[in-house]
Description:
The chain has five helices and five strands; from the N terminus they run βαβαβαβαβα. By secondary structure, the protein is α/β, with parallel strands linked by helices. It has one domain: Rossmann fold, CATH 3.40.50. The protein is globular and about 30 Å long. The two termini are about 25 Å apart.
Amino acid sequence: xxxxxxxxxxxxxxxxxxxxxxxxxxxxxxxxxxxxxxxxxxxxxxxxxxxxxxxxxxxxxxxxxxxxxxxxxxxxxxxxxxxxxxxxxxxxxxxxxxxxxxxxxxxxxxxxxxxxxxxxxxxxxxxxxxxx
Length: 132
């Protein structure tokens, strides 16, 4: 199973996703914004980042840019969540190698779980995971 870092400023959403991933057998760490996530990544390893786009202090796109600029994180799988899809942001995220983009209004936890498993086990015949 994977160590997943869930970065989401809304407590209910963060807890909801974290608890689901824990029930699926993953180790989960949480952060309330990009700055906190970056500090946590400096001190502990993550296999996957589940990242909200809109957050205070440092948003998801800003964190993603930092992750992609460092060798230790430039291939770290990232799953993006967005409530308001701005095409330019989504294009930038895809260009930076985001594994999957979920729109908060219509995502299912089971689908998130499947994407995480596909990332953890890429040779198990997973499907194309980029949506938008």
